Amino acid sequence: MKRILVFVVALLGGIATLSAQNIKGVVRDAKGEALIGVSIFWEGTTIGTATDVDGSYELYRVKDHNRLVAAYIGYVDSVVEVAKDAKEVDFVLSDGVGIEEVVIEGISNNKIRQSSIMAGENISFAGLCKMACCNLAESFENSAAVTVGYSDAVSGSRQIKMLGLAGTYTQILDENRPIMRGIGSPYGLNYTPGMWLNSIQVSKGIASVTAGHEAMTGQINLEYRKPTDEEKFFLNLYFDNELKPEVNIAMPFAFDKEKRLTTNILLHYSGDTQALDHNEDGFRDLPMARQFNIANRWLYQNPMGAQIRWGWRYVNENRVGGDMEYTPERYDQMVSEKQIYGSEIKNRGLNAYLKVGLPVGASVWDEETQEEKRSSVAFVADYDNFSMDSYFGLNTYKGAENSLWGNLSYQHYFSGRSSMVAGASMWMRGIEEGVVQMAEPMQNSVELLEPGLFAEYTYAIKDKFSIIAGVRGDVMTSPKESGVKSEFILTPRMHLRYNITDQTVVRASAGLGARKVMPFTDNIWMLATGRTIVNDIEAGKDLERAATFGGSLSHTLSLVGYNDLTVSLDFFRTQFSNSVYADQEWADGTIHLYNTDLPSFANNYQLDVQWTPAEGLDIFTTFRYTDSRVTLERGGEQMLVERPLVGSFKGLVNVQYATKFRRWVFDFTAQLNGPMRLPALDGNVASAEYSPIYPMFYGQVSHRVGQWDIYVGCENILNFMQHDPIKGIEAPFSPDFNSSVVWGPLMGRKFYIGARFNLY
Question: Are residues 157 and 33 in the same domain?
């Protein structure tokens, strides 16, 4: 790895720097006077700038966009087709009936991805603003593909579900770099502020082999605000009726006019400062928490195509939950008297990364896309350190993880239609976990070394046919654990897309996946119960394996306008050959962790409809049905039962209306959440009980005033709550205590107000 880094740095040092291919120009009126503050932006994007005191501007090119717009109050807009080799574009604006205000529009709704080879959706920044989302966990309220819920009613840990399975089977990427793995995963969704993101791409089903073998049900890729963003300063302020403040700041900065070296500083603070008990059970609905989050992302780009990206991030959060009267100062009293129940969680995380991309060899011209494509070498390194110091009543958990992941790949273009990427990866992990449950200590010490090789071939005919076929092989070894054999992981995967017509697209995918189980952090909810944990996982059988296959059919038609309606139907099935299950449905007050090769699967059906019946009006509706089952063995008998706490269906309708230039934006969302099988804590699995069907409603209004977006909204308008999320609350240190049976909202109606500020 050191040799690779030395080689890359030396190679970059030998590449000469030239002027970046930016567009420059001057904007004047009909009299030749320079105009100050004219909005210049690429049509159909959120990327733009404004003219300075001399009427001058400079804007970087955006791929696949060549129409440049100049707009100014009191003047007629001007649109220019920019040639590929153009370096300067001047505007002359004429007096006329001008616009009141220019606001660069983004995609307002979750967008069905028609052009992608993989089935999924794209959530734009405008979509993230719909719910005034505070973090990644709150970014999917307009999605039926992704469901987010609480793992328990004590810790506040959030988890996603895709295709009827827990989020541990979904791979999350930071701009194609795997994150949220290991000890940090239970709370990772809370540590990605939504206002730090430009977009979220959700892919359903098996993912590409280039990022690893773990993704089984889907992949979520996060695109952050860029160091090259034209805005000089972004501020988001949020406050709700529960006295929760939140602040997000982004500050991009360029060190030279050509933007060869740029950086972006991202800051976040949030605080759940009030102890709230809406259901009046004597316990906090959610823990009190304070979070500080900072990131610094850098980009160096060379006009010859070389790029270096690097950055770091640090998060610090403390949580206190449990009894309304509990404070950390009363810990000794809790241990000695066992009269008051409390929880405290201290999480600390540090991440650093390096990404290097170098073009190599001759370029290839793609006649279909009219683009130049060039082979390249890419190197990615990622270091992650995360520690957790926590207790849940008398159960304590302390863990620390250090991991280093590296990936070296070469992408070669045979022609404009075909390409291949091949490479090698290395993942090193050191994990130390200690659990004390009711004075019974359990230790988990793991050191893993996982080298891997992969190759993936792509062939595409634009707007007609695409295929991606890949395979990777990884060897998982445990140097510290003598006697445990190395395990080989083979994961072949394939994706197809065929455009039957210009409006009809069919997709199919299939492949294998595997993941190493982290028994405690994967099931952190176990510690928020009074049950005894029994680890029955067979030695060497903690590697889960599954096959996922499925596909989708989407059709675009013209109902009241051109291509204004898109309908998509998809089906996916995930079937395990070896799974690890946390089974709490025992009458003796235990939770058994065990591996099984008995039937375990999840079938997922989903219908999406996206309609734009009029300018400014977007309607997105979706319905998902899930059949997720696992086989339990009791007394020598096998029972195929519904997986507990997985909703059988979810329906969603989102309506957004935006006035011209998005000066006013109105959002309304309605959800209908289907029943979940509740875990049979008394051991009577054959007699199933279900949660009720319940609706959820959300509304938000935002108004543009100058460079400010002022928004007000209400979540959970009907004030629906699960009133009994904690079982055995009168005896919190007994086996009857259980806070993991969470099927509905823990918080009631919430009003909020906020403001977003952009300085260009």
Answer: no
Cα separation of 41 and 659, whole Å? 20
Q: What is the pLDDT of residues 526-554, one digit of tens each?
A: 999 999 999 899 888 889 999 999 999 99
User: How far apart, in whole angstroms, are the C-alpha atoms of residue 485 and residue 583?
Assistant: 27
Reported as a pLDDT band with limits 50, 70 and 90, residue 83 is confident
List strands edge to edge, sheet with 158-162.
146-150, 158-162, 165-166
Identify whether residues 185 and 249 lie together within a single domain.
Answer: no
Nearest 5°: CA angle at 700, between 694 and 705? 175
> Could you list the residue range(s) of the whole structural domain that residue 30 is in?
2-93
CA distance 392 to 746: 18
CB 215 within 8 A of CB 202: no
Indicate the number of domains in the chain. 3
Final residue before a domain boundary, out of 220, 255, 270: 220
| Within a domain: 104 | no
DSSP secondary structure string for all residues of 500-511: SSSSEEEEEEEE
- Average per-residue pLDDT for the chain: 88
- pLDDT for position 395: 94
Radius of gyration of the chain (CA): 27
**β-bridge partners, 25:** 57
Which of the 8 DSSP states describes residue 372?
Answer: E
Between strands 750-759 and 708-715, the pairing is antiparallel
Shared domain check, 556 and 487: yes
**Which helix (H) or strand (E) element contains residue 413?**
strand 395-413
- The model's pTM is 0.84
Taking a C-beta distance cutoff of 8 angstroms, is the pair 356, 12 a contact?
Answer: yes
Cα(621)–Cα(121) distance, integer angstroms = 13
96 pLDDT more than 60? no
Give how far Cα 15 sits from Cα of 60, 139, 263, 300, 357, Å: 21, 41, 21, 12, 13
- The one-character DSSP state at 277 is -
Q: What is the 3-state secondary structure (H, E, C) of 721-733?
A: CCCCCCECCCCCC
DSSP codes of every residue in 694-755: EEEEEEEEEEEETTEEEEEEEESTT----S--SBSTTSTTSTT-B-----S-SS--EEEEEE
Closest CA to 297 of 341, 354, 350: 354
User: Parallel, antiparallel, or unpaired for β 233-240 and 218-224?
Assistant: unpaired
Q: Report the DSSP beta bridge partners of residue 198.
A: none
80 residue type, one letter = V
Q: Which of 614, 619, 700 is nearest to 660 (CA)?
A: 614
Report if residue 715 sits inside a domain: yes
Strand-strand pairing, 694-705 and 56-60: unpaired
Task: State residue 195 phi and psi, 5-degree precision.
Answer: -75, -5
Say if CB 736 and CB 212 are below 8 A apart. no
Question: Domain for residue 760, yes or no?
Answer: no
Is residue 627 in a domain?
yes
